[in-house]
């Protein structure tokens, strides 16, 4: 019994040695490891055969088995290392860098024309001492309309085709609600601008359901229409060139009184008359006015003590004038042929 098992161990060792020399790859190493050293492997079955032997011969046979096991582990580990080395060399050889090849050209990106325009507008006003504020794009009826002196059923609501969302909220139709949010928190002097996206149910070559505005508000003691005119005229000349003519035209907004719209001499035809300015020589670029006393009342600022002016301008409109773009939708299509021109 004992000799039989010892012979068997010797045979197994011989077979294993020849199998080891014929190993072709890493998978084969793994297979042999399972075959000999696995839980149901040959070594394990030798050990259980050994337990049937009389106890005095077991140590001798056990030693043989353990030696075989140690031998197998060592040989298999050696093989694993060899194949690991081979595959590492293969990877290096495959990935070898040819430093004489020309580099791959990565096209540098640049800012979107709307962002560039917004940054120029914001830069001019921050240069004049205005600070930047932001407000939510999903607004309440109160901030978007009521606090701005547009009560329910007011006809001025028809000027804004509003997107309503769940819970009685709406997508702000202008950046003016930021005026209210800032005046609720801060006391004059207030010098603020608020750039951001606004939404209206409108879509054609000059209207988009989402577009951008910059709101402005200045509140302090003794602010009058002259201040408004000067600040906005300075803005127009910085934005469109020193030679630009600027005119203020009476208008109406519920949150300002008096209100005006600002036109500049047409940037395309220099005021001679063209398709863009509808032959008038002027293009409208913003709305403005003196803050309505009822707006001050809604934020608890005393209109007898403080006055102020506000304005709102459309970023797309200004970008279209500056770059000579005739379809607002081009801004949002992300067509590289369009964007690469800026
Ligand atoms: N909120 C107005 C609009 O979207 C623009 C505007 C006009 C803003 C006059 C103002 C303002 O602050 O004083 O049409």
Salient structural properties:
342 residues; binds 3,4-dihydroxyphenylalanine; three-stranded antiparallel beta sheet; elongated; 11 helices; alpha+beta; single chain; 2 domains; BirA Bifunctional Protein, domain 2; seven-stranded mixed beta sheet
Summarize the entry for a quick read.
This protein has 342 residues and is of the alpha+beta class. 41% of the residues lie in helices and 20% in strands. It has 2 domains: 2-93; 113-339, Bira Bifunctional Protein, Domain 2 (BirA Bifunctional Protein, domain 2, 2-Layer Sandwich), CATH 3.30.930.10.
Protein model, in words:
The model has no long low-confidence stretch (mean pLDDT 91). The protein is an alpha+beta fold and 342 residues long. It has helices at 2-21, 26-37, 42-50, 58-94, 113-127, 141-144, 177-185, 225-240, 293-298, 315-323, 336-339; strands at 131-132, 138-140, 164-165, 169-171, 190-199, 210-220, 246-253, 256-265, 282-291, 307-314. It has 2 domains: 2-93; 113-339, BirA Bifunctional Protein, domain 2. A 7-stranded mixed beta sheet has the order 1-5-6-10-9-8-7, sandwiched between helices. A hairpin with a 3-residue loop joins strand 3 (164-165) and strand 4 (169-171). Helix 1 (2-21) runs parallel beside helix 4 (58-94), helix 2 runs antiparallel to helix 4 and helix 3 (42-50) packs antiparallel against helix 4. The chain binds 3,4-dihydroxyphenylalanine. 3,4-dihydroxyphenylalanine (DAH) binds next to strand 9 and strand 10. 3,4-dihydroxyphenylalanine binds at residues 174, 176, 215, 253, 256, 287-289, 310-312.
């Amino acid at each position: 019994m004992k000799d039989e098992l010892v012979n068997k161990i010797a045979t197994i060792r011989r077979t294993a040695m020849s199998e080891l020399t014929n190993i072709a790859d890493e998978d084969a190493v793994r297979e042999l490891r399972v075959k000999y050293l696995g839980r149901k492997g040959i070594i394990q079955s030798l050990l259980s055969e050994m337990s049937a032997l009389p106890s005095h011969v077991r140590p001798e046979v056990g030693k043989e088995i353990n030696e075989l096991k140690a031998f197998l582990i060592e040989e298999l580990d050696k093989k694993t290392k060899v194949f690991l080395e081979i595959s590492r060399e293969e990877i290096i050889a495959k990935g070898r860098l040819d430093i004489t090849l020309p580099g791959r050209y990565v096209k540098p990106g640049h800012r979107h024309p709307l962002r560039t325009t917004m940054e120029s507008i914001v830069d001019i006003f921050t240069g004049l001492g205005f600070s930047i504020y932001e407000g939510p794009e999903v607004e309440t009826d109160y901030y978007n309309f009521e606090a701005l002196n547009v009560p329910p059923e007011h006809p001025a609501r028809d000027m804004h085709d509003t997107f309503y969302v769940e819970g009685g909220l709406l997508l702000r139709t202008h950046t003016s609600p930021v005026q209210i949010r800032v005046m609720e928190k801060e006391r004059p002097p207030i010098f603020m601008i608020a750039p951001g996206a606004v939404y209206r149910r409108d879509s054609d070559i000059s209207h988009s359901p989402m577009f951008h505005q910059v709101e402005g508000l200045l509140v302090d003691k003794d602010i009058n229409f002259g201040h408004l005119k000067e600040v906005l005229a300075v803005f127009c000349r910085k934005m469109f060139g020193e030679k630009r003519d600027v005119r203020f035209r009476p208008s109406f907004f519920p949150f300002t009184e008096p209100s005006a719209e600002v036109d500049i001499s047409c940037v395309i035809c220099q005021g001679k008359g063209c398709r863009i300015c509808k032959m008038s020589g002027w293009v409208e670029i913003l709305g403005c006015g003196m803050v309505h006393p009822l707006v001050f009342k809604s934020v608890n600022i005393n209109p007898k003590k403080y006055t102020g002016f506000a304005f709102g301008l459309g970023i797309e409109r200004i970008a279209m004038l500056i770059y000579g773009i005739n379809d607002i939708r081009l801004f949002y299509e992300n067509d590289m042929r369009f964007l690469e021109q800026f």
